[in-house]
Amino acid sequence: MKLNANENPFTRQIDMISLNPEWINRYPDAAYPDLLDRLSAYTGVDQERLVLGNGSDELLDMLCRSLFENGDQVMTLSPSFGEYDRYLAINGLKQLKVVPDLELLNTSVDRIIFFIKKHRPKGFILCNPNNPTGQLYSKEDLHSIISVLPSDSYLILDEAYVEFVNQDVSVYLEDDKRIITVRTLSKAFGLAGLRIGYTIVSSTVRQLLTPYLSPYRIGNFSAQLACKQFDLNEMRRHVKAMLVEKQKLMTALSTVDDIRTVACFGNFVWLHSRDAQTLRNYLSTAGVKIRSFVGALDDYLRISIGTESEIDELIRLIKEMDPDYAKNH
Q1: Domain residue limits at 130
Q2: 115/172 same-domain check
Q3: How far apart are CA 181 and CA 122, in angstroms?
Q4: Cα–Cα distance between 72 and 92 in angstroms, integer?
Q5: Does 220 lie in the same domain as 237?
Q6: pLDDT over 50 at 326, yes or no
Q7: Residues 171 and 41 grouped into a single domain
Q8: What's residue 322's pLDDT?
């Protein structure tokens, strides 16, 4: 059971007969018009502001290359998506990690604003909701952050999990070249294997980004299958189902004395336990993979939300491991 990568657990049905054999021997249309049509309609922004990438990972790397100069300081939360560390390092950028000040390693807006005012970074990569903590910053929070952001700095919003949020937190429709939004079709849309990411940028940022982009970043099969599988109704059904299972798991975990959780957004649960590694090892022996951490995060775990049967099995295993839980249920 794979509950460690924040994937959508629902398998898609594919009509293999409709696949075009020429997708193998021909290069894709570098403009990707069909896919951009769908993304433009979904986001409400013009195609000229959308840039596709081989997963949002590639776009985050390209943004680090194109927007900053060697030695520039870029701010991130801590903890946050681990790949930020790598992209900043390989592009010669200095990483400034905001020290968390809230329960379960969450970070207040006041702390973020303090760090921006004190250090005046050239950029701030903010995962919203944050991975792995699931902390969500509201649109009001983002406006507070933007208001203190230096005029020559960029706010890169990684919205990989935004479809799991029940409120509007996006600010990409606002006319501010400093705001960049990065999204993916890997999570809520369940297309992780196709590696489709996109970013919403201003015309100014697009000009800076374009020289760093290869012409055929997404293969024919990925681009065309993404178009065929771009079903908003199905995506929303999947999200709803995952959130139901998430609440079930949160309720179960809340009865275990040694486990602490807080409200988190995304298709995962973030928890603290003094016996985190024992729990991870126990579940691993039972064939369940969850995300563990090392160092200062040794007592924390992140569990991705699976199907109903997977979450039921996970809860059963936790019951068997924890005698108090079993006694109370």
Answers
A1: 16-230
A2: yes
A3: 16
A4: 8
A5: no
A6: no
A7: yes
A8: 60
Q: Is residue 64, in this structure, part of any structural domain at all?
A: yes
Among 12-16, 203-207, 231-235, 268-272, which stretch is predicted with the lowest mean pLDDT?
Answer: 12-16
Tokens for 328? 């109370």
- Cα(117)–Cα(123) distance, rounded to whole angstroms? 12
Cβ atoms of 212 and 53 within 8 Å: the answer is: no
- Total count of domains within the chain: 2
Structure-block tokens of residue 69? 């100069």
Amino acid at 326: A
On whether both 276 and 222 belong to a single domain, the answer is no
How confident is the model over 53-106, as pLDDT tens digits?
Answer: 999 999 999 999 999 999 999 999 999 999 999 999 999 999 999 999 999 999
Question: Which of 230, 260, 286 is a domain's end point?
Answer: 230
- In this prediction the pTM is 0.95
- Asked if the peptide bond before residue 129 counts as cis, ω within 30 degrees of 0, the response is yes
Specify the pLDDT at position 53. Answer: 97
The sign one gets for the Cα dihedral 240, 245, 248, 250 is: negative
Most confident of 13-22, 250-259, 302-311: 302-311
Per the domain annotation, does 37 fall within a domain? Answer: yes
Helix H or strand E segment including 84: helix 83-90
The C-alpha atoms of residue 145 and residue 138 are separated, in whole angstroms, by: 11
State which amino acid sits at residue 95: Q
